[in-house]
Design goal:
- By secondary structure, this protein is of the alpha/beta class.
- The chain has 2 domains: 2-146, Rossmann fold; 179-415 and 430-476, Dihydrodipicolinate Reductase, domain 2.
- The chain contains 14 helices and 17 strands.
- The protein has helices at 10-25, 45-59, 65-71, 84-101, 118-127, 153-164, 182-192, 223-226, 231-248, 257-270, 279-282, 405-409, 416-426, 435-453; strands at 2-5, 35-39, 74-78, 107-111, 141-145, 172-174, 206-214, 283-289, 291-293, 296-298, 316-321, 333-338, 345-352, 370-376, 380-389, 395-404, 462-464.
- The strands form 3 sheets. A 9-stranded mixed β-sheet has the order 16-15-14-13-7-12-11-8-17. It has a 6-stranded parallel β-sheet with strand order 3-2-1-4-5-6.
- It binds NADPH dihydro-nicotinamide-adenine-dinucleotide phosphate and 6-O-phosphono-beta-D-glucopyranose.
- The site of NADPH dihydro-nicotinamide-adenine-dinucleotide phosphate has 17 residues, from helix 1.
Length: 487
């Protein structure tokens, strides 16, 4: 049974219920399944079902009898997660639903509420004894915690401690939806199911790696959350560091949660700490100013709804990470993200070293070979390399081999939330973050946050909306053959 706290919210209607719908359509949900929405909004189950009907129509385009059958598995319980007495009533209702749907006491609680409410829900679940599994109780109990997981190292540690007081680590599923993306899962397959790439995947052949997540949208209507977060917390601490770990990790001994998590943590442990004094050398931030996107004028971040006119929150962040280990010594990893950029594109670009000696006559614009993994959109992998342009002279040009998911496999790829929800129902934590990884990722970024928050650091570079970020981001590159790729 999936019990969603905050079920009246945006995430439930836009992502979670559509994901469960797709899982049912693919026959991946057990017969004995029920979804229970929980929130303070007063609503009957029928009213909640009607809202979910509209959500499925809007986000999936589904309607008709199949939707009716699906909605029959959905229920709603209204109550305040801050009210201890509510949990007694909730427990009784869940038991009744167990009887009706045959869910045998299995519970997956989902915290889809604002982050400041996670702890209250977790503590109250513990006090009410709804966390207990084993000891003669039927079924399993798990908890999914949304991002952001903490606001800094101290709050992330405190949240981990409080959760561990109620749930064992194997019961905790910390969501990072990037890990559920097909293209991110495919990185390990690409590396480890083919024998030809892994030998190149190291300091002997790779010059540097870039990981970019560029968005065209601005802050939208999320200033309440975003202005106290910023690009570093919102995207780098979680999504982009996870992607970096998947690219940089050693092959795990098995594809299971314990082995994969161990290797990813080792990557973070190999990252050379950036001290507060070094932040200006290794990290760049920016905030979008007015500009245009797709031929339309757009306002600057400080003019957006609910953003303070003197906000110093970064909407762009770029960091150079150095990994001190045998595989990656001397190979910088450049990670960047920004809102209001020219294209929506998340990609990994691995640039290979130049050939050690060129025997071909001059005049050639020889570019180093690159491997580009397009996470989204236009999902695929491209390898670009030099080739001879046909003709009597030896002139070289850059050519590309391209694998495109849509062309190769067709059909619809599962959304990240489908994969992650199913994994949680199956008890597979491979694609989720563990407590050690979360704390280490915060630890690495704390000096950057400290430097950027210092009152003396008043200037936040700006960039025109619709461009690739502040000019200062180019200064991260200290070799003249390196430059940001435009995915
Ligand atoms: P919402 O802000 O829409 O909140 C969800 C629900 O939580 C609300 O409908 C509200 O329901 C309930 N709620 C709000 N405040 C409180 C409170 N003080 N006490 C108890 N309940 C409260 O959030 P989203 O649905 O957008 O997101 C949920 C979580 O997922 C957040 O942590 C967010 O950071 C995360 N997330 C969301 C994404 C998205 O695409 N929306 C993407 C990535 C992460 P009611 O008033 O009925 O109780
Ligand atoms: C979320 C961030 O986690 O990821 C958003 O809070 C961001 O600010 C989003 O827009 C990006 O996700 P995706 O899947 O569109 O790249």
């Amino acid at each position: 049974m999936l019990v969603i706290f905050g079920a009246s919210g945006d995430l439930t209607r836009r992502k979670l219920v559509p994901a469960i719908w797709h899982l049912q359509q693919q026959g991946r949900l057990p017969e004995q399944f029920a979804l229970v929405g929980v929130a303070r909004s007063e609503m009957s189950t029928d009213e909640f079902r009607q809202r979910m009907r509209e959500a499925l129509d809007e986000f999936v385009g589904a309607s008709g009898e199949e939707v009716d059958r699906f909605l029959a598995r959905i229920n709603y319980v209204s109550g305040d997660p801050g009210d201890a007495e509510f949990y007694g009533r909730l427990g009784q209702q869940l038991q009744q639903l167990d009887d009706a749907f045959g869910t045998a006491g299995n519970r997956c609680f989902y915290c889809s509420v604002p982050p400041q409410v996670y702890l209250t829900i977790i503590e109250q679940i513990g006090i009410a004894g709804l966390n207990q599994e084993g000891q003669g109780k039927p079924g399993w109990v798990r908890i999914i915690v949304e991002k952001p997981f903490g606001h800094d190292l101290d709050t992330a540690r405190a949240l981990n401690q409080s959760i561990h007081a109620v749930f064992a680590e194997h019961q905790i599923f910390r969501i990072d939806h990037y890990l559920g993306k097909e293209t991110v899962q495919n990185i390990l397959v690409f590396r480890l199911a083919n024998s030809m790439f892994e030998p190149l995947w190291n300091r002997r052949y790779v010059d540097h790696v870039q990981i970019t997540a560029a968005e065209t949208v601005g802050v939208e209507h999320r200033a309440g959350y975003y202005d106290s977060s910023g690009a570093l917390r919102d995207m780098i601490q979680n999504h982009l560091l996870q992607v970096m770990c998947v690219v940089a990790m050693e092959p795990p001994s098995a594809f299971d949660a314990e082995s994969v998590r161990l290797e990813k943590l080792k990557v973070l442990k190999a990252v050379r700490p950036i001290s507060v004094g070094q932040v200006d050398r290794f990290a760049v931030r920016g905030q979008y100013a007015a500009g245009d996107y797709d031929g339309t004028a757009v306002q600057g971040y400080r003019q957006e709804e609910d953003v303070p006119a003197n906000s110093r929150t970064e909407t762009f962040a770029a960091i150079e990470f150095t990994l001190d280990n045998w595989r990656w010594q001397g190979v910088p990893f450049y990670v960047r993200t920004g809102k209001r950029m020219p294209h929506r594109a998340s990609a990994i670009t691995m640039q290979f070293k130049q050939a050690p000696h060129l025997i071909f006559a001059g005049g050639n614009d020889l570019r180093p070979s690159t491997l580009t993994i397009r996470i989204q959109p236009d999902e695929g992998i491209a390898l670009s390399f030099s080739g001879k342009i046909p003709g009597p002279d030896v002139n070289l040009g850059t050519v590309e081999m391209d694998f495109n998911y849509q062309d190769a496999f067709g059909g619809r790829s599962p959304e990240a939330y489908e994969t992650l929800l199913l994994d949680c129902l199956l008890g597979d934590g491979t694609l989720f973050a563990d407590s050690g990884w979360i704390e280490k990722s915060w630890e690495l970024l704390m000096p950057v946050l400290e430097a950027w928050n210092a009152t003396s650091a008043t200037r936040v570079p700006t960039y025109r909306a619709g461009t690739w970020g502040p000019r200062e981001a180019d200064d991260l590159f200290d070799r003249d053959w390196r430059a940001w790729a435009c995915p």
